[in-house]
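Narrative of accomplishments. A recurring question from our advisory board has been how the design workflow behaves on a single, concrete structure rather than in aggregate. To address it, we present the structure tokens for one chain from the evaluation set, followed by the sequence designed for it. No filtering or post-editing was applied between the two.
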């Protein structure tokens, strides 16, 4: 089984060229590449697309302006941690039984992650 996995791992680099997703390209401000990729997918699927770089600039702003906005590492961590609120985690501990099950599941997952 390991041999098959290793062969497929090598095939991914030697036989196939995987492109970045348009979403990733847009997040990096590479709108022209994202539009070209969407047009390439449309061509391969024998269809047409209405997407242009001008439309992306109207919807999401110009990439030159977006590059000036840089977040510090602390701001990035604060944004990520803001999604962990008591309103979202609280229901996992609503009853004693549910809280116990939640703790046990987290402990099992944590133990599994550290074994490998």
């Amino acid at each position: 089984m390991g041999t098959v996995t290793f062969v497929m791992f090598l095939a991914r680099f030697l036989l196939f060229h995987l492109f970045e997703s348009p979403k990733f390209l847009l997040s990096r401000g590479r709108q022209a590449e994202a539009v070209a990729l969407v047009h390439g997918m449309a061509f391969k699927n024998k269809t047409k697309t209405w997407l242009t770089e001008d439309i992306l600039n109207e919807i999401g702003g110009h990439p030159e302006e977006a590059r000036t906005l840089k977040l510090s590492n602390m701001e990035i961590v604060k944004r990520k941690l803001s999604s962990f609120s008591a309103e979202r985690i609280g229901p996992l501990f609503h009853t004693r039984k549910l809280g116990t099950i939640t703790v046990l599941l987290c402990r099992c997952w944590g133990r599994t992650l550290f074994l490998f």
